[in-house]
Amino acid sequence: MNNQPVIIGGGAAGLMAALCLAPQKTVLLCGGSLGGNAASGWAQGGIAAVVGPDDSLDLHIADTISAGAGLCDPATVARMIAGGPWVIETLLKYGANFGRNPDGSLALGLEAAHARRRIVHAKDATGAEVMRVLINAVRATPSITVIEQAVAEHVFVKDNTVQGVQFRVGHDVSIIPTSAVVIATGGVGGLFAHTTNPRTATGAGLALAARAGANLRDIEFMQFHPTALACGLDPMPLISEALRGEGAKFVDTSGKPFMNGNDLAARDIVARAVAAKYAAGEQVFLDARHLTAEKFPAVFAACRANGINPALQPIPVRPAAHYHMGGIAVNAQSESSVHGLFACGEAAATGLHGANRLASNSLLEAMVTGRDAAAAIAARPPRLLSDTPLLVQRPGADNLPMIREICSANLGILRSAAGLSQAIAQLSPLAQTSNAALLATLMAQAALRRTESRGGHSRTDYPRTNPALAQSFSCNIHDVPTMKIAA
Ligand SMILES: Cc1cc2nc3c(=O)[nH]c(=O)nc-3n(C[C@H](O)[C@H](O)[C@H](O)COP(=O)(O)OP(=O)(O)OC[C@H]3O[C@@H](n4cnc5c(N)ncnc54)[C@H](O)[C@@H]3O)c2cc1C
Questions:
Q1: The pTM of the whole model exceeds 0.85
Q2: Which numeric CATH code is attached to 1-221+325-383?
Q3: pLDDT tens across 14-23, in order?
Q4: DSSP 3-state percent helix, strand, coil across the chain (nearest 5)
């Protein structure tokens, strides 16, 4: 396996990167089983792509930039959106069974802030279908060595250039010397007490990249989904936005609608409105009684498993940490500021989402960035590695219950200088050894630095958007004053 590219993460991004690298020999490290612990398999709504006759790349680009609240990188947006038809074509080639109209054309769903119906879906279990075909394709590709239950622990770097990766399977620690590592470890929702993400989504990949010296970008921007099922589960099942696309409405405890018809406004606006109801001691429901289990089988099944029948009663919902717009800063080749260290999917910050992700743009981004990282790696011959021995590192543990409490209290939908400063004071002493604490510290610092409200970042002490701050912030491990960094 020496000097083969190593991909960390078996979600849509990592699987697509591995498939696009074939027939080049590649190692795929999956933190769980192949496809396990991956948010990709949980995606409900679908994949945004310009495939409808009334749609255009320009319209999709305009919707994405408008949702991004002034921080999208227009060239990246154009490149990613142009990749949408390729993503759909590739998945269909692998055998994906997406919903169709009676005339055989793809059935397209509508989601918040999209000007057109452009969500390609497989009922309300699109992610499961995407993962089914990608996993089958990976299993059928002999050049990909899959290592399951393999948790990446360290990326070795010399002179700002990747040298290898350390991972653990149970108690067994291994090191693969390599000049190309792809981080595809997904999001960070597991840092919050209320989340729709797998609990393992604590941003370990971002912390590994930061410790390797890579720059992170836009990490203050967290998207909170307004409609997670409020039933006491951790993580919380998602109630897809597609229900509101089909006419479901928010109602309060007395059954009265309260969004003035804006039920499908951008996620940050809706999440704040729902959070305000909870702050006022009320509960919020989604009235979807006109919809059927036939159209939304996964949502109906999740509700019924928790004693709720959406056909007869409004669904109790509350906001939950859902998607991280920020991540490892990458260029158009998905490469970070460290040579040979690539990032794709939710772990990457490409400039597509800006301050707020447009719904269903993330599976699209996962697969386009996976493809782009693979193309960049394939285009260069493996580099000669340094002969400095790679010594086993001893990573520290994360006190997740405590970190989740701190993040939920201070880095949630509404933030303030006082709360963010308190979070930094509590978390930064742990950052030396804990990946979750390191990442949460960097997120809180970035949020403190952004003295305005924009997209997924809302400050009670700076409630307005400041046009002078319409730029991305980047940060790195040197920004954490408590870190002792080896020379
Ligand atoms: C409930 C839900 C619904 C969603 N619905 C949609 C939707 O309809 N449309 C859309 O576009 N997006 C949706 N999203 C977002 C989208 O699913 C994710 O952004 C996308 O799937 C991320 O893909 P990924 O490959 O980057 O990460 P993931 O799919 O999360 O995969 C990450 C992988 O990395 C592994 N990993 C993590 N850390 C390590 C480590 N240290 N070592 C080894 N492996 C590691 C994990 O085990 C996992 O295999 C949804 C998200 C959720 C949670």
A1: yes
A2: 3.50.50.60
A3: 999 999 999 9
A4: 35, 20, 50
